[in-house]
User: Fold these one by one.
Assistant:
Number 1:
Amino acid sequence: MLGTFTLTKGHADQYYNLAQKVRTLYLENYKELFKKYDVLVAPTSPSFAKEIGASASSPMFGELEDMLLEPSSVTGLPGINVPFYRDETSNLYLGANFIAPMWQENLIIKIADAFEKNTKWNSWRNKS
């Protein structure tokens, strides 16, 4: 919504160029991180999942909830969100975002699969 408003005000070129510079900085930062780490793990959102209807009173809801995902999304890096904690009182989840280097979709899927199969908290796991 904010991007659409900005672009309609006659500053499209200026904001596009700035966005490309920011994207390049993100790519350079990730490139350095992936020299040391195979995969990055980060929170998906700044808080627990929200209950249905929570966004009705907040026009910036999506921007605030997605701010931790934007750097990896803007750069096109493969990532996957995996629930990693459930609050038993509220039954709401926290998610982890696994991020891999460019073109490593296979790696990220293997890691998410291994994580889900080897954690004991997830409610959908077969109890044997």
Number 2:
Amino acid sequence: MIRELNAQFGIEGELDFVEDESGLAVAKIDNAQGSATLCLQGAHLMSWQPRSQKTPVVWLSRDAKLAVGKSIRGGAPVCWPWFGAHATESAFPGHGFARTVPWRVIESGKGIDGETRLALRLVASDKTREQWPHACNLDLVITIGETLRMELITENTGSDDFVIGEALHTYFQIGDISEVSVSGLEGCEYWDKVGGSSLRKQNGEIRFSGETDRVYINTVSECVIRDEKLMRSIHVAKSGSLSTVVWTPWIDKANKMGDMGQPDGWREMLCVESANALENQVKVASGTRHTLIVEYRAVSL
């Protein structure tokens, strides 16, 4: 499979497919603007570092493991076709199945400014159809360069409408969680999942002093992570998304998770996720498509 991937989609000196020791296929991108890695299982972007930055922008736990059927700690997991727990089936996986099943490469190419483009499609199976009995295609198109662009495209190919929840659950590399802030969500309402799922309103920028798990609703705003330790800001611009999720586990939850990169990996990551969750779930009518787009860039302070 690796030989076939490289023959059909590899780009000499820029895009190469290799097999991880787990047996999973990984795409390695290294171009004039930046570098990245992506696991074909889950279409899971694992890392991204533009040439302008000394430190990766997308965080991957030092204890992250690749394993068949398992999600990877860090990177940018694809949550789909639901976000969080399934509404009625407790045995179904949290955040859907897209991040733990095979995807196939359907296109690769080079951009006019030196970026690399890679498109993947989820491979449906009897197991996925048991959980999601709707005719559809799910594609992820990733463009890697000085900026990182991700497009999650849901196409309803069946005769019935359906409703999806989704997120690009991106982990960002930061210097220290106690020294960052997030702006862009001032005045927005959010569901506080740490505070008993209560609905609150954001007052000022977000700062962190404990576990934070919030779903901001009805917002299309660009978010900015200001990182005083790494002396940079990370900009998160999106479209086709009405929810933004902000998450840090803090020490107690991180210690229970076991793969956050002990002892202090949790201090060096922050999730700002572009999503459609809770009341912002999306109805995709028969014969139509919905696209969630997010673009990330890092700017030195």
Number 3:
Amino acid sequence: MKLLSHLDGELLALDGNALRRKRRTAESPCTPHVKVDGRAMLAFCSNDYLGLASHPLLIEALREGAGRYGAGSGASHLVSGHSRAHVLLEERLAAFMSPHLESAGAISFSTGYMANLAILSALGGPDTELFSEELNHASLIDGARLSRSSVKVYPHCDLAALEQMLHASAMQKKLVVTDSVFSMDGNLAPLPQLLALCERHDAWLVVDDAHGFGVLGENGRGALEHFSLRSPNLVYMGTLGKAAGVAGAFVAAHETVIEWLVQRARPYIYTTAAPPALAHALLASIDIIEGGEGKQRRAHLRSLIRQLKDSLRLAQWQHMDSGTAIQPVVIGENEAALRAAAKLEEGGFWVPAIRPPTVPVHTARLRITLSAAHASDEVERLALALNKIEKEI
């Protein structure tokens, strides 16, 4: 069959460029100590930044939520699937983010990908110019394509270029869209300066804080708290399956924006609502993030980040300058990155090799992610292994 032959050829091309991805099967809960494909490993690859995915309180809350609300929602939010648990979670999230948003409201989604598609497709349109950061996540790129807006891409963290684009735009509506923490580099967008530009040019600033929510800020309110930002121009997306340890995402913004998403966001309107039990478990998660335990976990995570920086002694590979839980080590070519990941695996470490198109060509890397569930000695062992493997390769 010609169609299958074509796909076989494309797959062989991926093999030839060391670009075929491989799924690994985890056979245990999401913790640093996992069983993968039958083997015990020390994982430095999850986005469970606070170590809440297997927290006993969340497990019990999920069990309680299933007993109270059942296993599924049964319909979309606007039919019959909008549960009391969803209402309580959205009210809690709106209150949690209210120090940074005027007249804050919140709306929950099944995934961060869906949330980003919803924001950009609902706020964009033929009368809109959308300014997208060069290194934005795929969900923001796809959302921009679906928005029917005129899309301009500005260079990474280049405020001068963005200002010129905004000044030249004659469109009625403007959206500036950026990740807060860039998922493959670990660095932060210059959000204060971006917000100042948006306020000056009457533009929305859409912030994807997938890797900042729960981690950044004194109380875990993410990048907005980290930078002490507050503005009606902000539209904030936070995920709930990373630092929050469960699943889903939310958008927080002025209540008028939230109502518009309810009315016009197709990824919200035309999909079955997430199980209410997840929303019930997330209420416990937000309590931990905001409380004393969350502060302790964030402090421990910061100490691990400092420790890794101090312990790596790399001569050829580049440990990127990141103050977040994402600690990439750029190796360069795909084959070398795969060899490094394989060497780490031989030593019992699970660290993925990230290759194009996720990252630019010739910048294949090891994406190390730290968690508050890691111990100091485990980070030290990883650093020693990396120092040794670089010399061997």
Number 4:
Amino acid sequence: MYKAADTLLLFGATGDLAKRMLLPSLCALHADGLLAEDLKIIGTARSEMDDAAFRNFAREALEQFLPAERRGGMAEFLNRLSYQSLDATTLDGFKALATKVGEPKTGLAIFLSTAPSLFEPTIKGLQHAGLDGENVRMCLEKPLGTDLATSCAINDAVASAFPEDRIFRIDHYLGKETVQNILALRFANVLFEPIWNSNYIDHVQVTVAETVGLEGRVAFYDDAGALRDMVQNHMLQLVAMLAMEPPTSFDATAIRDEKVKVLRALRKVSAAETVTGQYRSGAISGEAVRGYDDELGKDSGTETFTAIKAHVDNWRWKGVPFYLRTGKRLPERVTEILVQFRSVPHSIFDGAGAASMMQPNQLLIGIQPEENITLSLMAKVPGLDQDGTRLRSVPLDIAMPDAFVGAHRRIAYERLLLDLMKGDQTLFVRRDEVEAQWQWVDAIRSVWEAEGVTPKPYPAGTWGPNAAIALAERDGVSWHDE
């Protein structure tokens, strides 16, 4: 068990992630009194600036991306910040960086938010400067490679300086409150765990829908596509948390042991169990938007949408399909999980209104933009009925802001940065998880290449190609689009 770090070193400190997420998250933690009083934060990047200029950069980022009510003590927070410019491609500047860092009393946490091509030279530079000691832990921001081979190369480079128990791989979805609530929902309520299996669950849907297009990520996204950008990391982590066996304790090793078992149990997917698409011109919220090729400025075979019918081949989930769907330029921004339970084996309610209204229960877990949990239950419609008991599905809602009045809606990185500094790996991804995810995704890409699968066009503002609807409807399933 490590002591809490008293120094945080941010690589890529002038980048988009630092501006939108990391600096606002750290300031919010400071405002809530969750940062150690002696914690100092050092930013480093190629940009030439001094401490004062970096503080001004941070102030502008906070004013733009952090709500005013969460900026308490912003001046004191800015005083924690300092900066050291660095070209990570050479060893020349790392000694000066080490001097700026000094000698942390309890520990140094390093957050590496740079292009993957800089990971290996950065690790060598840290070793050269002696910033790889036993009190140093390393946090890696995705993407961690483009396939299994490149991911292994990155992990090998990091492992040359840091053992696995000091490596923290970020998947920011794991920092979202409702994602963490999946574990609480399953393992803190006797209501759900006994029925969380193929005897009672018909299927599971996971949807990650975006309304945006390329949004300045042109080069990265065209090389990645929807499968590698969303499915390989975020969506497979959601599947692992939904499908994992009960861990022996709420412990990083126990939880990650169970997640990797799920990832290794994923059945290889056939081409008929996948759909790929690419958006064309259309309308989002009443505004005309261009097609992907037009935004990109050239023809491309990259998928901006994919739907997959997946299976977890183990005792608990045998025969239960997991329908995964993600895409850009869809009608709304939403991330949600639908757990569809089976119908009751026999309905005792007869009469004109009852049988036709019987619906199986559903559990809907909303992750973004709204965090909520809704369980649909069958209930009797009030009234005196001459034609039999009338039933209707009614929602039992747990809206997180209502259930926990006064609690802030936190940025996902707040939890992850806090855990990084504490040394808690529970919400970070282990190497064997990453490699199991890549093995499954690489197999899908190999099938697409072998069978000549190309993206089907779909108009922006729709829920993807018609083939995605057919993928589910062949099994009598409808996507949850409401």
